[in-house]
Design brief:
With 246 residues, this protein is of the alpha/beta class. It contains six helices and 13 strands.
Length: 246
């Protein structure tokens, strides 16, 4: 079993968000970056569980500059065998998907796994684009994945229940909660990650289909108004005049 896991570098969830260059670029000053949780906790860990049981290798791939090597080493410490970094510098979905697909086409992977989305852009686009570019099946938002021989079986949550999907041959799957439980790297894994292979690949020339015009922060939360339980009239008035349905 040969599995490729796509990982992204994202800001830590406690990061205070701000923008620079006339609100066209995320401000990375003093920001702590991490492996995208959906990629790490679900896609990577489930890939490791499968190969630990059935044999095989797990390769992680990231598209980004040399600064991303730190989070790649974190993923290697969790247990991946080796890694690839495509030396591009863009977060645009089609660009990222194209770089991963171009590399994966010639490597003979059985499964290509991603998290369901990144926690910064929340686009949930890259997995489907990779599958389309490689002309292989795509299963989105899977919460389980089991492999038996040449057949993979997945479950996807739907309204009121779940559906079971079966795939044979190479495919792409995006993973969500339920796929696996997070692992914490141990000291042995951290030490081993320092010497595991990290191959840097030159990006292919790909036209980017989208661009950022401006980032806008959501409006600040309004202050909470405390109403006396004896003042029902005021509460009713505020519900009519100020309350917003979300």
């Amino acid at each position: 079993m040969k599995i490729l896991v796509c990982i992204s570098k994202v800001p830590d969830t406690t990061t205070k968000i701000s923008f620079v260059d006339n609100d066209t670029k995320f401000n990375e000053d003093k920001v702590q970056f991490i492996v995208n949780p959906y990629d790490e906790w679900y896609a990577l860990v489930r890939a490791l569980e499968i190969t630990e049981k059935q044999g095989g290798t797990v390769t992680i791939i990231n598209v980004g500059p040399a600064d991303n090597d730190q989070i790649i080493r974190k993923a290697l410490a969790i247990g991946a065998n080796d890694s690839v970094r495509v030396d591009g510098n863009s977060n645009e979905s089609f660009y990222v998907a194209s770089q991963i697909a171009e590399y994966a086409k010639t490597q003979g992977y059985d499964i290509i796994m991603t998290g369901k989305e990144t926690i910064d852009f929340n686009g949930a686009e890259v997995g489907g684009m990779i599958a389309e570019l490689m002309n292989v099946p795509y299963v989105s938002h899977a919460s389980t994945l089991d492999v038996d021989g040449g057949k993979a079986t997945m479950k996807r949550n739907i309204e009121g229940g779940y559906e079971t999907v079966e795939v044979t041959g190479t495919f792409v799957v995006s993973c969500q909660k339920g796929m696996a439980e997070a692992r914490i790297p141990n000291m042995r894994g951290i030490m081993a990650a320092r010497t595991k292979p990290l191959t840097v690949v030159t990006p292919v020339n790909v036209a980017q289909l989208t661009s950022v015009k401006v980032f806008t922060l959501p409006p600040a939360k309004a202050a909470v108004k405390m109403i006396s339980p004896d003042n029902v009239a005021e509460l009713v008035n505020l519900l009519h005049t100020e309350a917003k349905v979300i």
